[in-house]
Fold this sequence. Notes:
Blueprint: E1 6-12, H1 16-22, E2 33-38, H2 45-51, E3 55-58, H3 64-74, E4 79-83, H4 94-102, E5 107-111, E6 118-119, H5 124-141, E7 153-156, H6 157-163, H7 172-182, E8 187-191, E9 193-194, H8 206-222
Parallel strand pairs: 1-2, 1-4, 2-3, 5-8, 6-9
Antiparallel strand pairs: 4-7, 5-7
Helix pairs in contact: 1-2, 5-8, 7-8
Amino acid sequence: MEKPKVSLIVLTYNEKEGLEKMMPLVKKSWADEVIIADYNSTDGTIESAKKMGFKVIQGKKKGRGNGFRDGLENATGDILVYFSPDGNELPEDIPKLVDKIKQGYDMVIASRFSKLSKSEDATLVRRIGNNMFTIIINLLFRTKLTDAVNGFRAIRTDVMKKINTDAENFEIELQMTAKCAKRGYKITEIPTIEPKRIGGTAKLNTIIDGWRILKFVLKERFSA
């Protein structure tokens, strides 16, 4: 069997400091291609990425979900790994995610809240919100996940195309989880450690994005 090709999709928006610190830690052997999916950063992120030799695609529409699909449309790999270089995600987990896909899973999530995991960045409010959404996913779609929300994940390219996402912002991760679970795709997790963010500012608004996420999950559960 031919070795599957891996596309690492790096999601950025004004993450110059994190990009310059984290991307040198990503080994070339971990991915066949690296794509920086950016939405018109103004802090030098794009220039730094190009200087480091990475392919940069600039989305026409703002939003994390649009970045996920921009990466999908430009990737040539059989496996997609979505990664944010803000310091919250450990580069060394990239091959672990890929290995699980190679074992036969369709999507693999890096869990920050399993028994072997740890988050050094989640506030109490964000932790409660993440746990609540994960519980809802588990109840509605009969899964047994500990972190249905984290965007640090790997997914088979053909599966990402088939689930046909339309979420534009931070609801993309939970929509992916819900759609995969609803369609019977094999989902698993690996434990991870979430360090503190490096530079930049968090883009998630707990209240506004939380409500938007909940609506997407319910829509997916009760749609045809």
